[in-house]
């Protein structure tokens, strides 16, 4: 979700578009993205991996653009190569080696950027790569892979949408005005409750444990909102409003994926500890061992 009001230094003031037009633009853009994502996820692990690679590469470029400015440098090339290697390894069943590729890429970026923005530049490798590997790992776990990824995406999307609606409709006290002036406590609560409701409804639809997935959804909503705030803090530190303008009404892919990034990684880690052989099934069982 992207509601920040920070502006890039030197930009001209432009009269804002009517609110209804902005909401319609967001909706149309989100619908188009949703159709592409659903089709790739439904088509199988390899098409989904291709989509994950494209998104990871775009996010790598956006991260580089925010931290180091426009242009292609050696660090961005290393970043992109790490994404390609990690996604390819994960797509063919070597997710652990994919994570190793990301760690190697992170170390190389640290060395290349020593003295400028080494930590932030290196963090970008993990930020774009870990969720891609996590989601590919889950999607590849048949027969539950499709449903597990669909569950994650729907719950995060519900968090973003209902947080936006609740915040704009109810208003009220600001959540973190120093980081993101437009975010409110009502938005946070609406997003988290919406995530729990969506997770519960999804569980009902697939005959999974409703209470367990609703609780997981509640946690997902909170983590997604924290991811949103973390990205807002980064953009504010670099005085940018949107990381790019690739998604009309939303900004860039990082602006759209800020909640999905930490949620995907957190769920994959939980599944790794619960059942590394069947992570998608473990997620849809509510992380309760012994539940079919």
Write up this protein:
The chain has 292 residues and is mainly α. The protein has two domains: 44-140, no CATH class; 143-292, no CATH class. It has helices at residues 19-43, 45-68, 74-91, 95-112, 118-139, 145-170, 185-205, 210-237, 253-257, 260-274, 279-284; strands at 174-176, 180-184. A two-stranded antiparallel sheet has the order 1-2. A hairpin with a 3-residue loop joins strand 1 and strand 2 (180-184). It is globular, with a radius of gyration of 19 Å. The model is unreliable at 1-17 (pLDDT under 50).
Provide keyphrases for this structure:
single chain; 292 residues; mainly alpha; 2 domains; two-stranded antiparallel ribbon; 71% helix; 3% strand; globular; disordered N terminus
Short description:
This protein has 292 residues and is an all-alpha fold. It has two domains: 44-140, no CATH class; 143-292, no CATH class.
Number of E strands: 2
In the predicted model, the low-confidence regions spanning at least 5 consecutive residues are 1-17
State the helix count. Answer: 11
Quaternary organization: single chain
Biggest sheet overview: 2 strands, antiparallel
Rg, nearest Å:
19 Å
Average pLDDT for all residues: 88
Rough outline: globular
N- to C-terminal distance: 34 Å
Number of domains: 2
The chain-level structural class is mainly alpha
Spatial arrangement of strands, main beta sheet: 1-2
Helix percent reads: over 70%
List the helices and strands in order: HHHHHHEEHHHHH
Percent of residues in beta strands: under 5%
């Amino acid at each position: 979700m992207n509601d920040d009001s920070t502006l890039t230094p030197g930009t001209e003031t432009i009269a804002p578009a009517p609110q209804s037009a902005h909401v319609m633009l967001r909706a149309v853009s989100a619908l188009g993205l949703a159709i592409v994502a659903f089709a790739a996820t439904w088509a199988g692990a390899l098409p989904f991996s291709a989509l994950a690679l494209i998104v990871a590469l775009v996010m790598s470029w956006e991260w580089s653009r925010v931290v180091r400015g426009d242009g292609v440098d050696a660090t961005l090339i290393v970043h992109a190569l790490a994404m390609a290697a990690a996604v390819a390894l994960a797509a063919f069943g070597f997710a652990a080696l994919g994570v190793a590729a990301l760690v190697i890429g992170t170390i190389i970026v640290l060395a290349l950027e020593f003295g400028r923005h080494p930590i932030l530049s290196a963090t970008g490798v993990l930020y774009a790569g870990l969720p891609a590997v996590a989601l590919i790992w889950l999607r590849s776990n048949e027969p539950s892979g499709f449903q597990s990824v669909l569950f994650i995406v729907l719950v995060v999307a519900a968090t973003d949408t209902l947080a936006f609606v609740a915040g704009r409709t109810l208003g009220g006290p600001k959540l973190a005005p120093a980081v993101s002036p437009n975010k409110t406590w009502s938005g946070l609560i609406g997003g988290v409750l919406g995530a729990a409701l969506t997770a519960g409804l999804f569980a009902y639809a697939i005959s999974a444990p409703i209470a367990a997935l609703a609780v997981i959804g509640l946690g997902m909503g909170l983590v997604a909102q924290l991811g949103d705030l973390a990205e807002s803090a980064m953009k504010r530190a670099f005085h940018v409003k949107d990381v790019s303008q690739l998604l009309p009404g939303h900004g860039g892919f990082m602006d759209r994926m800020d909640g999905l990034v930490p949620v995907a990684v957190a769920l994959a880690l939980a599944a790794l500890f619960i059942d590394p052989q069947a992570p998608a099934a473990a997620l849809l069982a509510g992380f309760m061992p012994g539940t079919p």
